[in-house]
Amino acid sequence: MKVFSFINQKGGVGKTTSAITLGHGLAIGGYRVLLIDGDKQGHVERHLKIPKAGGFRRWFYEEEPMEKHIVEARPNLWVLPGDKSTNLVIGKLRDEPLATPLFVRRIRQEAESLGMQVCLIDLGPGLDHLQTAAMMASDYVVIPVSPRFLDMDGVAEVTSTMAELNYSKGKSWERFIILPTMYVRVWRESGTRLKELVDTFGSLVWPPIPNDPRVVESAGRGMTLWEYAAETKAVKGIEAGGKRIGGYEEALRRMRRLLEEG
């Protein structure tokens, strides 16, 4: 099983949308996917039209079995739901020295025992003890980022934290992925910031997800993009030079390749 965490200290950059869209895409393709809602806002549940619940808190803080609290939101896509009580998980990770290694071990052991092939962890904005524990549990860290000046700082903060964990804890990752979201080709700002990312991180930057109003519409209807608008540009990418570039379909292909390689 491979674990992907979706992290950025900046909010509103497409973490939840990306985790849901890629998770559901993998599930449609036959993978057994666990999506953990580590954001106390509970937006995964709102998006997928399932009830908010303290499953994440009850699993880790109260040490109940994961199996009791996961919900099959779509065929092959299970959700461990979260709500405002996730604050208790953050407190436990902050206050108990052995909580982080326990978190890392339990995610992998329990998800694998349930037959999951992929685990995606959606996290709220910030870089607190929960984000750090999720990084420690992950094979891959995905950093969604909107290519705008003020949003770019989040990439530097996450990569800096990863470097600190590598130095202090010896943690290494198979890869980290920068996923540009909300890309507007006709805006000079989007093009400039995307170029900055590629110049700095090279092939770690995946092709961008175009800005698309249907992303917001799908969440408001409790549907994923695959259900609501599978042909939209956020999924299919943008036309350039006679071919399609970017979009969640391309990101999904790359995730599948990582899973097949690993």
From TrEMBL:
CDD domains: ParAB_family. Pfam families: AAA_31. Residues 1-167 form the AAA domain. SUPFAM superfamilies: P-loop containing nucleoside triphosphate hydrolases. This is AAA domain-containing protein.
